[in-house]
Q: What sequence folds into this?
């Protein structure tokens, strides 16, 4: 039962995500009837599914908002910001219903939504579908399978949903599987309805959202028939105690009552042979939708990646044996295995990729609500949101981006009157652009607000002791103070800002993803924030380096240059400098850092880029490239700022992945 409830929550979450997108779109285009119909259909699906799975609060609140959109579809109401707010309240209520354990809290939220709806419409207990001008009559056949109770589906809720669609004729019949070609897994009852309603075929199909088989819906005519005495007589004469309405009979009803049937069309239809099915199982086996897309649990993808990692590790082991033993046949097999494992790896990574558009609704809602709360006008423009990232990266990057956009609205974008005085448009703009850069993804966030006051940051840093009087800091170094814990220039503490929490979290989260953040700003023109994160965290191209007779890994994508050097040139200090192309570059002596400093004459310095600057890492030697499948470290390493994971090499030994970003960032903070 828990599995099916979990499926309901997952499916409803997808519907809510689509609903959020539609609400944001319809607010921009309130006359778009297609989006309005889609919103109505989604809310109706949520209501029906909630009823089936016993979420009465969600069912009642959704039904209330569904009534609201019934009035909108009928032309009695127009879309406005208050109605959009009610719908967002519904989404928030549903999300809380999945986690909140105090029923009284949920009851208050449910009542609040229903009361708000009643302020817009004055409806009675009569069928709200009578507002519609388009009436059709449908035939509905429904025969559920036996396991619907185990799946936590409320059968009576489905029947109630059918009957609440409009006027209906109902035929409830027992089912006796007497022959071998009949399905014994079907419920002992089945139902057939003729329903006159203003709902579309898609709306009626949504009633059976959790059934792939066991139902059939056919439109009989675009007129009301269930109160027609001739039609009633025909159905009663045809139906038998334990027999279905035949396909031939349904086709005859369509032929007789469809107003689209011209004499010429009737002649064509009469030439068609309507064959009687051998059994009713053809209906039961009809699939609701044919689709090329399937839903896969993230846990299964994680297991797949683990198997891929085992494959790559064993492939590296075979490669080592092949090179050592110089076996020609084994070399050829190894080459083929290399190609196959690379393809499997690429497919596995691709399965985990999720478009950035999947989290954009959160940002759009934040812009909408926060700008309204602050009395500002802000638009969010996006580009490249089809850019994909690993699911783990997507899940962890949403919070940092929310912090950045919140700061853009709160600190960056001016109030409308202030913008007008500066010669700007009344509405501020935030641009969100995502793009690929090799194995990384670049996300740029730019606002056209007041920009960053560098002098104000410097004064606050001096006041709080973050920098010393007389210290020489350039513009970028001063702006990077924003990322230090507890730093804020806001004098007044509000619900939005002023607590010194935010940009340090941004930096921490991005660094944990082996990414980096850079910031630039021009007074009066706005602020530019650039985030760089790897496409995936699971499989990384690395360099194998030797430090004190042990093998470690460095990420290859950030390496700029490797030079040979005498270790004596690297002082025994933890951090020293080296002149590279005329620039003084900080060097981290990993030999000293890892505690077994040797006096080997020759060594290497691996130079990497971090925030547009170069840093060096002193090692003994470079072994070569290695495709590393990274595994997370134990919780005992949570506070360590040296390693980000571990990988098993082809010879079975373990190599730790050096987190160059954390080492550099920690050193910079210690410097300040």
A:
């Amino acid at each position: 039962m828990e599995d099916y409830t979990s499926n309901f929550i997952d499916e409803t979450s997808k519907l809510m995500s689509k609903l959020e997108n539609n609400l944001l779109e319809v607010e921009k285009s309130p006359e778009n009837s297609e989006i309005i119909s889609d919103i109505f259909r989604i809310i109706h699906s949520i209501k029906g599914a909630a009823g089936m799975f016993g979420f009465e609060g969600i069912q009642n609140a959704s039904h209330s908002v569904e009534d609201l959109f019934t009035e909108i579809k009928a032309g009695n109401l127009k879309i406005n910001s208050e109605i959009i707010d009610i719908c967002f309240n519904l989404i928030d209520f549903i999300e809380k219903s999945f986690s909140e354990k105090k029923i009284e809290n949920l009851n208050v939220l449910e009542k609040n939504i229903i009361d708000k709806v009643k302020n817009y419409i004055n409806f009675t207990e009569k069928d709200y579908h009578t507002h519609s001008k388009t009436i059709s009559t449908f035939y509905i056949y429904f025969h559920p399978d036996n396991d619907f109770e185990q799946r936590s589906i409320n059968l009576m809720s489905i029947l109630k949903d059918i009957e609440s669609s409009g006027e209906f004729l109902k035929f409830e019949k027992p089912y006796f599987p007497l022959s071998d070609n009949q399905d014994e897994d079907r419920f002992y009852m089945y139902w057939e309805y003729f329903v006159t309603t203003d709902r579309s075929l898609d709306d009626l199909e949504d009633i059976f959202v959790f059934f792939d088989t066991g139902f059939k819906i056919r439109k009989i005519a675009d007129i009301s028939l269930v109160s027609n005495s001739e039609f009633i007589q025909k159905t009663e004469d045809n139906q038998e105690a334990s027999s279905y309405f035949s396909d031939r009979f349904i086709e005859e009803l369509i032929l007789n009552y469809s107003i689209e049937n011209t004499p010429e069309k009737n002649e064509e239809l009469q030439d068609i042979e309507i064959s009687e099915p051998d059994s009713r199982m053809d209906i039961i086996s009809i699939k609701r939708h044919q689709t090329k897309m399937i839903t896969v649990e993230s846990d299964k993808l994680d297991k797949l990646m683990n198997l891929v990692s085992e494959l790559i590790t064993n492939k590296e082991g075979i490669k080592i044996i092949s090179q050592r033993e110089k076996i020609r046949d084994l070399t050829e097999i190894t080459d083929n295995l290399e190609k196959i494992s690379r393809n499997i790896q690429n497919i596995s990574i691709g399965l985990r990729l999720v478009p950035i558009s999947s989290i954009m609704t959160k940002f759009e809602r934040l812009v909408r609500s926060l700008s309204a709360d602050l009395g500002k006008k802000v638009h969010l423009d996006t580009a490249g949101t089809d850019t994909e990232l690993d699911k783990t990266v997507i899940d962890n990057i949403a919070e940092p981006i929310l912090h950045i956009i919140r700061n853009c609205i709160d600190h960056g974008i001016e109030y409308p009157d202030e913008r007008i005085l500066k010669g700007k448009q009344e509405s501020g703009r935030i641009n969100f652009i995502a793009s690929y850069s090799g194995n990384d993804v670049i996300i740029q966030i730019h606002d056209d607000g007041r920009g960053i006051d560098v002098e104000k940051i410097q004064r606050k840093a001096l006041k709080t002791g973050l920098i010393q009087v007389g210290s020489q800091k350039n513009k970028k170094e001063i702006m990077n103070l924003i990322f230090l814990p507890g730093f804020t220039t806001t004098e007044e503490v509000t619900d939005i800002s002023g607590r010194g929490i935010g940009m340090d979290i941004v930096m921490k989260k991005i660094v944990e993803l082996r990414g980096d953040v850079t910031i630039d700003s021009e007074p009066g023109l706005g602020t530019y924030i650039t985030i760089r994160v790897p496409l995936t965290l699971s499989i990384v191209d690395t360099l194998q380096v030797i430090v004190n007779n042990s093998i470690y890994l460095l990420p290859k994508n950030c390496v700029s240059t490797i030079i040979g050097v005498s270790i004596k040139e690297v002082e025994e200090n933890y951090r020293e400098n080296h002149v590279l192309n005329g620039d003084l570059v900080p060097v981290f002596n990993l030999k000293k850092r890892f505690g077994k400093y040797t006096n080997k004459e020759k060594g290497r310095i691996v130079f990497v880029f971090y925030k547009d600057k170069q840093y060096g890492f002193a090692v003994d030697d470079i072994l070569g490239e290695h495709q590393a499948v990274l595994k997370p470290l134990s919780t005992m390493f949570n506070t360590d700022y040296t390693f980000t994971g571990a990988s098993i090499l082809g010879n079975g030994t373990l190599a730790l992945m050096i987190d160059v970003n954390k080492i550099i960032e920690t050193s910079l903070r210690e410097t300040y």
Remarks:
- The chain has five domains: 2-123, 131-284, 298-353, 356-534, 539-661.
- Residues 123-132, 260-291 have pLDDT under 50 and may be disordered.
